[in-house]
């Protein structure tokens, strides 16, 4: 938790008309002597303390302090109240929520029509009331529909402004949040609309070079997010296309961070698609790009991607060497240079990816040991990853011959699938069911098999 300043900020809440944002000086005082990046890291730590997940970076802090974000979403509000106990949103320089959205917002004066918030931005306000209701009352399909918004709707031909770039960035955060909690299957087709709208903005060009740079980065990250939804839902050809688009965008704009991310995802996809040598090459290319970014955690993840490729090739020595590099880099800790999209990468992910390497090498006992650690360490917020690591554990145990524990792990995964839709996890459970079928007369295995759809080719078994 960030220690409160010596005295309570006395600056009045930051309010603005839609055309003239005013700096949020009260929030700037709360940041104190920390840099925006350091303060963003403190926000992420505070979120973890209360079981929240926010994708906070220095850019977000800058948007708050500039007055661009007049009121935080509900997740950020909970985190800020945790960091600064006893302070209201007004004390922190924010406008009342009802004046930002809803009836109060619709009634706000606008000096000239062209100065109103662009439709794209208005449609995807962070965690809108509609989205919040969908979380409480609807399923994954409702969440996808309510949260992503009609970003791809026809829009007047005009050059993009900073608010449009911010809208694309917010769409990326929204998709990642929903994927973390609910998996990819119900989101992919809906997320394609925002991506088309983002490309339209990119084609229209921007008013300023700084906005153009943000748009290129944002559209590239959005392509990667949509590509990941395709990847995780088994649409490998679609994923490959989206990743290639992101890589092309990175190359055009000279964005090393986006290039590293694109190659990272390409390596992961190549491994899953049975092209391990391509996975190694893509991971190594990602590491070359990432060396300019001063993020040890990013290099650690990329070493794990390389290890996965070596494991697929059956090269145990090269795999172990890459795993050692990954652990060494991870131990150097996080930094302000860590990309925002890496919020998922912690000790649980490190253990889970190592488990996958040992499984590819056929060392089921070691794979199960790391998968068990991954499932135990995973933040509950990442429901999809919890299901994934537990499904990996079930499969590893089944192949190791520990059938009762494998069935128990499989049942735990089935309990999570009400909230998570992932073709990857479903396929892993089906594979585990096939492995356990010869042991169907044992009670735990029989219960697991009774709750899994009959694996293909087992009729009459």
Automatic annotation (TrEMBL):
Superkingdom field: Bacteria
Ranges annotated as biased composition (Pro residues): 1-12
InterPro entries to which the protein is assigned, alphabetical: TPR-like_helical_dom_sf (IPR011990)
Renumbered residue ranges of the record's region Disordered: 1-29
Name the UniProt record assigns to this protein: Transcriptional regulator
Originating organism: Streptomyces lycii
